[in-house]
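SAMPLE LOG
Freezer: B-3
Tube label: C17
Construct: single chain, 105 aa
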Amino acid sequence: MSSYLKSIGRVSARPILLLYYVMQSKDTPWKDKVTIFCALAYLVLPIDILDAKRLPIIGWLDEITSLAVAIQRMSKYITPKMEAETDAVLDRWFPVCTEFEEVIV
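STRUCTURE (predicted):
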């Protein structure tokens, strides 16, 4: 179970880290950096459009949707170097889990 949870954490953290690296890039336009910042802030801040306390599963959909839209719009700025840096950080945070990684990824 522990390796499964590590795999879930790794898969969940990857898009957030990629957005962070895209936001830090000099090649990303200012407008897109603001979009990323807003998506990440919405994930972290306690303000919600759909309250997760009242609607437990549905309440997470707005966060997931904002991240999915940001990743989709910013994917054109993701470079192989950013992916390598993201994977290096994830390797430190979540040691590679060979048992479930093929299933989730």
